[in-house]
Structure formats: structure tokens, C-alpha cells
Design goal:
2 copies of one chain form a homodimer.
Chain A: H1 6-23, E1 30-34, E2 40-45, H2 48-51, H3 58-65, E3 76-79, H4 85-93, E4 98-101, H5 111-116, E5 120-123, H6 127-139, H7 141-147, H8 151-155
Parallel strand pairs in A: 3-4, 4-5
Antiparallel strand pairs in A: 1-2, 1-3
Domain CMP/dCMP-type deaminase (chains A, B): 5-121
Organism (chains A, B): Nocardia amamiensis
InterPro entries (chains A, B): CMP_dCMP_dom (IPR002125), Cytidine_deaminase-like (IPR016193)
Amino acid sequence: MTSVTPAQELLDVAYEEALHGLAEGGIPIGAALFDADGTLLGRGRNRRVQSGDPSVHAETDAFRAAGRRRDYRRTTMVTTLSPCWYCSGLIRQFGIGSLIVGESQTFSGGHDWLADHGVAVTVLQDRRCVDLMTQFIAEHPALWYEDIGVADELEA
Amino acid sequence: MTSVTPAQELLDVAYEEALHGLAEGGIPIGAALFDADGTLLGRGRNRRVQSGDPSVHAETDAFRAAGRRRDYRRTTMVTTLSPCWYCSGLIRQFGIGSLIVGESQTFSGGHDWLADHGVAVTVLQDRRCVDLMTQFIAEHPALWYEDIGVADELEA
């Protein structure tokens, strides 16, 4: 039997969301918010394309799905890709205690900044996540750069 | 006649949104995104209470209302209150060029961090905005601390 760490099991939920987004024609990034005991509080995916909404990054979507809460200190945000500044800011502002990142090879956002501010950060460098984003960026560069606000690349 | 600076005229739109939110029973923070020529691209308000959605801060709502865009460098985000880390991260990630802050006396978020990263930041310390939040925080402390993820204060 293959040994599966808890972090990888949590990542599986985010990865399923990413695949769901891809199947919808969207940007394949997924996320999920869990309580300390592993209870799923909310899951979501990037829906820039599907909803025409630039504010719905995967982490935002999972955070929204979890509803209003008073204390995030014992929660864990799991995301297939290193969180951008927008999503890193979300994690810091609401005091989410832990962050599990699928990969930071295709894009590196604010996960080191979060670690510097007390968030327990784990980066898995999961091969499935790397492959998913590598292929997506190669096939849809303009959409990808739009999603992370990189206007220079769109002019090239 | 009273002399009105352009920044104050832009702030008026955000302040109207804040009052709208207050009238709905919500947290009175408003925001608006403008193009370089002063064209309004989107306006919005905090809707944690109204929509039961913790991800809708005023800046997020204005950003969403502006729809998908490829380049934010010549846009200005105007907000009645210093942006929290979540909203500061939004401004940084999407390369919004300018930020006008109504006030930073009742809450100070990431506006200095944004200035350090190249955003042109103006803080007006507008008396209406200060009074609005001062009164709201005094009357609804638990709701306010929930909105900025300060769990410690809720335990007191």
C-alpha cells in the first residue's frame, strides 16, 4: 500500500476542485479550508472564466463557501498553487493558522511572507499540480497572466 | 464656493457606498475603482452581513463590479478605510496603480506596504469617514472584529 500523508489527503480535495475548474473551461486552481480535526469547512476553485468574476480565486471561493466564522486560527487552507498576494492577504488578515501548498514551481506568491508572519506553511511540490499548471499556462498564457495581473506579458 | 479636490470627489462615491451599507444593516465601508480619466469602473461595499459572505470586503466588491480587465496600472482604488491585508493583497497582485484612503485612524491595514511596493497612496483622514467607523466600532465591536479576523478581542 502507498503511504499517504494527511497533507496529501487534504490536497486531494483541492486538486479535485482544480480538475473541476479545468473541465468547466476555467483556470485549474482549487482550494479547500479545513478545521483542525480535518473537517471540510469549504471548498472552491478559480472561477474567473466560469463566472466572469476576477475576484474569485480558489482560496477566496473556499473561504466564502465556509461562511462567516469568528476564529480561523485552527483552520488550514489547502491550495493547489502558491497563493498570490490577494489570497496571501486573505490568509494573513483572517489569521488562518496553517497553509498547505500543492506547488510553487509554476508560480510563487506570498507563502514565504505568510511563514514569516507565523503561518505554518507546507509546500508539497506535488507532481500532479505542477503538471496541471505547466500545461495550462503553456496553452492559455493570456488567461493566466490576466488572472495574476501581469499586464506586461500581455503586451509582448 | 468650497474647493473640492479630485481625490475628495472620488472618495464621495466610496462614502456613499459606505452609507448604503450602513442603511442595509451592514459594516459601513465603501470603495470604488476608477480609470485614470476619472471614469467609474466599479463600486461596492462590505456585504458580510447583507450577503452572509465574509469574502466581500468593499474593495473586493468594487473590483468584482469592474469585471474582468487586463491592466489595472492606470486605475485608482478609493476606499473609505485603510485596506486590510486581504484588500491590500488584491491591490498589489493586480497592479492597481493608485490608492486613495478615506482614513486610517480607526484601522490601519496595508497602505504603507503598498506604498513601499510602488502604489501611489493618498490618505485623506476624512472626518466623515473617521466618524462613521468610530461610531460603528463602538456600537458593533464583535461584528467589526469578526470582519478583520481578530479572534482575541471576541474572547474578551
